[in-house]
Amino acid sequence: MILILLHGSRGEIPSKPIAATILPTVKPNDGVQTYAEDQKNNLPVFTMNYPRIQIPFEITLWVLLASFAKIGFHVYHKITIWVPESCLLISIGLIVGAIMHSVHEEPPAVLTSNVFFLYMLPLIVLESGYFMPTRPFFENIGTVFWFAVVGTLWNSIGIGISLFAICQIPAFGVQDINLQENLLFSAIISAVDPVAVLNVFEDVSVNEQLYIVVFGECLFNDAVTVVLYNMFSFVAEMPVVEPVDVFIGVARFFIVGLGGMAFGILFGFVAAFTTRFTSKVREIEPLFVFMYSYLAYLVAELFAISSIMAIITCALTMKYYVEENVSQRSCTTIRHVIKMLASISETLIFFFLGVVTITTDHEWNWGYILFTLLFAFVWRGLGILVLTQIINPFRTIPFNMKDQFGLAYGGLRGAVSFALAFTLPDTIGRKQLFVTATIAVILFTVFLQGISIRPLIEFINVRRTNRNLETINVEIHCRLMEHTMAGIEDLCGQWSRFYWKDKFMKFNNRILRKILIRDSRAESSIVALYKKLELQNAMEILDTASGDISAAPSIVSLSYTKCRKKFLAADLRNIHDILSKNMYKIRERTVAYRGKHALPNDSQTREILIRRHATIRRSLRPRSFQSSNVPRTHKYFSLPAGKSLESRFDAPARSSSSKAMIPLHRLGTLEEVPSTDVLNEESSSTGEGVFRTNSSYSDSRVPHPRRLNSSFDDNNSSVDDLRNVHEEDGAEQVGQRQPASPAPGWAAEPRETTARNPLLRRPQWNPKKK
Amino acid sequence: MGALQSSPGRPEYSDLAEKTGFSFEQIGVLHKRFKQLSHNEETLRRDNFNEINDLALNPIRTQIIEAFFDRRNFHQNGEGKVQEIGFEEFVVVMSHFRPPSAHMTEEQRGKTRREKLRFLFNMHDTDNDGIITLEEYRHVVEELLSRSGTLEKETAKCIADAAMLEVASISVGHMEPDEFYEGITFEHFLKLLERFEIESKMTIRFLNMDTTTLCK
């Protein structure tokens, strides 16, 4: 393809005659700069120097090609439902490889093992670690490690030994492979990489335990595999293996694993600490996340300990604190960039897998390869069965047979196996065979299992889970449960996971947060969620204003439309469907309160809320409540936020908007009629004058989108600008419905939708994105 | 089952075991704990609970303690509070936290779930009228948030309000403007948390270990 481009570009070179000469300055030659010999000292008008840019150029083209392929898949979106993306990528790679093979071109030499392990793998692993759902992970951490470590060991040793047994059979002609080499090979192919499977799991929303175990196993068994691989390759070069070497191996394993974690945690804390001070240099905040995790990876590689563990623990540790310290934009940037890099990396890997399949020299041995396939399958199944039996008694929710099937069948091989195969030392006689076998296993599992897993999972009806849990009630009850459980455990005098969690949270709040977070006000997750939902509410009004209004004729009256005032729960669902077209995402923990962060203008937010509430109220007014004194709070109103709430979250110096002092009452006084009309009239012309007209609101003031405002920093307070900014930052926010009004119909929404995360591909436990 | 020889009152245990589903060892362990908490008396009072240090830091300790003295949790259809409880009641309350055994039928699972949710409901519903009103809910939220630093009461109120609105919408759906939402009844509560995996969250692994040495 490069050649094609080159040829094409050559044809376009204009030959410009220079004043003094008639000769073209460029001869069609491999682009090397040329002069005719008799042209002396003339300034070349047009030159080409290809070798200079060759490597970056080719890399860019390959990346582009792979990305075009990705775009192409989604043209017809049904394809990706039935065929996982990795399959498609490999197929495209195969095609391109075939083309290249036919023109006798070599694949770019950039895919060395160094490139893979130093550049590509860390990105993929960072993404997995960063987006790992922490709560389910820690609840299942025992199971995850059990499967990752023991399962991988089981697999590699089992496959290795059985293959060695097969090798003894003369018929297959592979007798020269000794035990160490077999073990080495089996370590390579026991690395599970269920990317395709995770996508399917997410789409089908299998139960959380299964998902997190598959996900965690994949992550951590990379670490185990690399350790085993290094161990076995060292051992393979030794002529004789002593028992003491086995012990050393085990010791080494622990050092590697724990050392990796230690490094990761260390770097995570350093990163968190650094971000504490970055409030003045917002632009480079994302850099710290990347640099520190990469540093963790490299330093771990330096000491030959598990770099994957290091980078994962670094990401896990860092995420919680960093996200509280950095600005909203940096946070979005970080997430976006991680996703992007990981996506590129993975795309490239699968793509190259396809290309290399065609272009390398293969050594095919029917017996060995088929048995490899068979054993890979069998040992995985057996392993899962046995291991689950052992660990089920320790689990709160045991795995049933269907879960186990999902686990076993989801054991696809992928990128890591591929890379490891290529890094086999050349001293191994049968390296080509191993490479071929690895590729065969990968292709087989990815294609066959990847494509068939979706129908199978749906057919056997694996236990599903409901993921719409982002509501206030559930959050409250979650916390309630946790505290209750911790309390009961204290009562019983038992130390179990709630106890440890409690202890850790106390430690966290008392010590860690003070050190690592800029303004370490301990914020309850309930409040964080509440704020987030309110923020989404606030954004929703912009959404409806800028969204597709025409599609919902019976929408709640907006400032800009004259629709009928009545609304029903069904309308809200319509609205929500419209809104869900613009899918936004905001951070999970919204605001770290920064006392000194000067908000240039937080009136916009209030304006949003005021307008929204105004519209709601307008729609309700004909049937509005008669009395403003509510008998004993049996009535539920939109959330009255007192003065104190506002002043709480306002920067103390911010009293410029004296609107902060608007007293807020309950909804329902008829006095509001004029004010809302005024409001609506003015809203199209915006400006701060809006505020003056309102004497009573029962708004829920946004408690506080400081985040929101910081992104509005450079905008003035016009609604139009708001809208624009909102569209710019569109990627950051999720439109979601939330009850903020008396009408209960509104509250129906949160149950149905959750914060959709278009950014999160595999690990986030979320409903269908995209 | 060598441990049984040393535990007194064995026939009592089998009765309890039937009733609550604990095993003999677990009941033995709980008995030890009971005796430790009550300083070897027959009954436990609230003060005994207050002595537990770790519990002091728990934001909802009052509710938890009250739950032990709430007759509704004794599965005897009683109501109101008691001042002291015996071992039997202790175990019955603890049995709410038993993990579901692997051999349960769907029906039993549903029943367990209801029991656990009923426990939670009783924790909220302090005035025993079968309905969680806004005030009660607010109280719970305030307690929960009381540890997280510097929250105002207003925020807690807002949150509780939002939560109630949510419940109202889920349970009752579209309400006429003149209707009130009285409060969360148990049925609404069930519906609210129907997807909430309470079986996994509300269980304690009552390990058969000797806990007397581990606590304070």
From TrEMBL, chain A:
Region (Disordered), start-end ranges: 673-770
Entry membrane topology: Multi-pass membrane protein
Residue ranges of every copy of the Sodium/hydrogen exchanger regulatory region domain listed in the record: 551-650
Compositional bias segments (type: Low complexity): 709-719
GO CC annotations, alphabetized: plasma membrane
Subcellular location as annotated: Cell membrane
Biased composition (Polar residues): 677-699
InterPro entries for the chain: Cation/H_exchanger_CPA1, Cation/H_exchanger_TM, NaH_exchanger, NHE_CaM-bd
Record-level Gene Ontology MF annotations: potassium:proton antiporter activity; sodium:proton antiporter activity
UniProt domain Cation/H+ exchanger transmembrane: residue ranges: 64-457
Domain of life: Eukaryota
Record keywords: Antiport, Cell membrane, Ion transport, Membrane, Sodium, Sodium transport, Transmembrane, Transmembrane helix, Transport
Listed transmembrane segments: 55-73, 79-99, 111-132, 144-167, 210-232, 253-274, 294-316, 337-360, 366-387, 407-428, 434-457
Any one of the GO BP annotations: sodium ion import across plasma membrane
PANTHER family with a match to the protein in the record: SODIUM/HYDROGEN EXCHANGER, SODIUM_HYDROGEN EXCHANGER
Recorded family membership: Belongs to the monovalent cation:proton antiporter 1 (CPA1) transporter (TC 2.A.36) family.
Record protein name field: Sodium/hydrogen exchanger
Origin species: Haplochromis burtoni
From TrEMBL, chain B:
Keyword NAD included in the entry's annotation: no
Bilayer topology term: Lipid-anchor
Cell compartment(s), UniProt: Cell projection, Lamellipodium; Cell projection, Ruffle membrane; Cytoplasm; Membrane
Molecular function GO terms recorded: calcium ion binding; protein kinase inhibitor activity
Matching InterPro entries: CHP3, EF-hand-dom_pair, EF_Hand_1_Ca_BS, EF_hand_dom
GO cellular component labels: cytoplasm; lamellipodium; nucleus; ruffle membrane
Gene Ontology process terms (BP): cell differentiation
Keywords noted in UniProt: Calcium, Cell membrane, Cell projection, Cytoplasm, Differentiation, Lipoprotein, Membrane, Metal-binding, Myristate, Nucleus, Protein kinase inhibitor
Domain EF-hand: 112-147
Family statement drawn from the similarity comment of this UniProt entry: Belongs to the calcineurin regulatory subunit family. CHP subfamily.
Classification via PANTHER family: CALCINEURIN B HOMOLOGOUS PROTEIN 3 (PTHR46823)
Designated name of the protein: Calcineurin B homologous protein 3
